[in-house]
Amino acid sequence: MATKRKLDMSGTNETEEQTSSEAKTKRVNISFKSISGSLTKEDVEKSSQSSNKIADRNEKPVKEKDKKVARKDESSTIIPITINIGRNETSTYKYVDTKEKFIEVMKELQEMIENKQMIAVDCEGVNLSRFGSVTLVNIGTRDLVYLIDILKIGNSVFDDGLRSILEDSGIEKLMFDCREDADALLHIHKVKLNGVLDVQILEVNNRIHVYRNGYTKIRSLKHCLELYVTDDTLVNIKLQGRSSMNMSSNIWEKRPLDENMLKYASVDILSLFKLYDALRTRMSHIVWKAASSRYCDTARSKNRTYRDGSGILPKGIIL
User: Are strands 119-124 and 136-140 parallel, antiparallel or unpaired?
Assistant: First the structure.
């Protein structure tokens, strides 16, 4: 009996499955006939258009994401530009105008400093002093200059690493007439420039007693290059930039910066290494660094009501 009941149940299950399958097939056939019977050419076209729209919506986010990635990669890519700094000598500068580029540059600078490479610093701006603006802070070695655009990136660059380099007395920085740079950095950006080795002090040292009453004239960077560097390549680049500056008093606040101005800013850094090589034996390192520190304080420590630059070396700088 058990076997028969088992067989009967098995047969019943098979019959039910077959009936269910036939019913499904019938319903599918009826649905298909109903749909195909009422489907027109217009319905087919509408269905196709709807499918295309859905496909476009699905693809669009992916394309936009790809574009965002491409823009990010572009904003963090620094294109090195090679310039001639001598008859058979070249160097490179990198224009840094985005936060992403700046972050990458800070990593490179820290590595240079850790490797004890000598660096030089210079600022550009309109009426450079507490009464004007700092639009570029330029830092470099003999082979590579970074032109950091403060106007485009913003003051955050100082808190993101630039301040620690400029204020660290242990990181020595070649400069040329650091007085107004120091004044602008302190009173506009709250950065106290330190660790300066001012090349102008080296140049003026041998002439300190030439003039009566202890007054000694200071010379411009261009004049020093003409006197101590036999190759005039750097001077010519400065002359091209100076020509552009004469046509516009606020050229350092204009964007995009002209190529001549980028080269001019680079040369202000690269020239310091040339002059350092020519003049470094004129003073002991300790005396030079102390004199440079006093030179930094000349303008920034005064109560000033206007930019009162002088072509005479202040007393008490070189002891």
Answer: antiparallel
Which class does domain 80-300 fall in? alpha beta
Condensed to tens digits (0 to 9), the pLDDT of residues 184-240 reads: 999 999 999 999 999 999 999 988 755 556 678 999 999 999 999 999 999 999 999
Q: For residues 212 and 86, what is the distance between their CA atoms, to the nearest angstrom?
A: 38
Q: Which residue has the higher pLDDT, 33 or 192?
A: 192
Q: 65 or 124: whose pLDDT is higher?
A: 124
pLDDT of the residue at 20: 47
Which backbone phi and psi does 255 adopt, to 5 degrees?
-135, 140
State percent of the chain over pLDDT 90: 69
187-190 own/partner pairs: CB under 8 Å, 24+ apart: 187/130, 187/300, 188/130, 188/133, 188/134, 189/134, 189/155, 189/158, 190/158
Distance CA 203, CA 212 (A): 18
Please tell me what DSSP assigns to residue 162.
I
Residue ranges per structural domain of the chain: 47-75, 80-300
Give the largest Cα separation in the chain, rounded. Answer: 137
Angstrom distance (rounded) from CA 169 to CA 273: 19
Could you tell me if 95 and 81 are in contact, meaning their C-beta atoms sit under 8 angstroms apart?
A: yes
